Amino acid sequence: MTAGEIGRRPWIVGVSGASGTPYAAAVLRALLDAGESVDLVVSRASRLTLLDETGIAFRDAHWRQDLGEWLARGADGKPDTFAVGAAPDQVRYWSAGDLAAGPSSGSYPAKGMIIVPASTACVAGVALGLSKDLLQRAASVTLKEGRRLVVAVRETPLNGQTLKHLVALDEAGAVVLPASPAFYAGATHIQDLVDFVAGRALDAAGVPHRLYRRWGGELGGGSPDR
């Protein structure tokens, strides 16, 4: 561990193969805006989803460049919507196949983990403790260490087996957070709906943000003041 990493306690962000890569981008941007350090794990399946949804090929050898391009893209697919540039220094990337990576151990310091989006296969793997890749292993470690685990499941409809897995995660201490956008916050753009889900995930993690307009107890209060 270098001198610059002493005292570093990142949020681990796991991206599984479910549709919804804009959710992950919004969470990552907000964590970085909040000054948080991030450890990123991108599953093999999520690379295919990212390529299909954005046209971005996420490569281990060029992850900083690819992540920067991903974070700059809006939920509507337009490039350079956000001023990001290359991935900032507070991001550390781990290959999903690296089971010797830092987040695979409970002694590795971390604040918690957010899986966004979480596929039903990922949900099953974490609920059953399979640890078939670093994403699932890091989630299992997060649970056993009593750290906050937020699982933003993105699937519909949900069958009985997946519901049982979600109940198992809830009983294990995870926060089960369906990727369900709300409209009371005055959404006028697809990015607003994405940011609402990302904001709720960060609420569950206890990370401050300004991604959506909060309910103030007054009808009609959802008109955006941007």
What does this structure look like?
- This protein is of the alpha/beta class.
- Helix content is 37%, strand content 13%.
- The protein contains seven helices and six strands.
- The chain has helices at residues 21-33, 44-54, 63-72, 120-128, 134-144, 160-172, 190-205; strands spanning 11-15, 38-42, 91-95, 112-118, 148-153, 175-176.
- The protein has a six-stranded parallel β-sheet, sandwiched between helices.
- α1 links the parallel β1 (11-15) and β2 (38-42).
- α4 (120-128) crosses α5 and α4 packs across α6.
- The longest helix is centred in the last third of the chain and has 16 residues, at 190-205.
- The termini are far apart.
Layout of SSEs?
Blueprint: E1 11-15, H1 21-33, E2 38-42, H2 44-54, H3 63-72, E3 91-95, E4 112-118, H4 120-128, H5 134-144, E5 148-153, H6 160-172, E6 175-176, H7 190-205
Parallel strand pairs: 1-2, 1-4, 2-3, 4-5, 5-6
How many H/I helices?
Answer: 7
Mean pLDDT value: 94
> What is the strand tally?
6
Strand content: 5-15%
Helicity range: 25-40%
Helix-strand topology string: EHEHHEEHHEHEH
Give the N-terminus to C-terminus distance in angstroms: 43 Å
- Would you tell me the structural class of the helices and strands? alpha/beta
* Largest sheet entry: 6 strands, parallel
Strand order in space, largest sheet: 3-2-1-4-5-6
Estimate the global geometry from the Cα principal axes.
Answer: globular
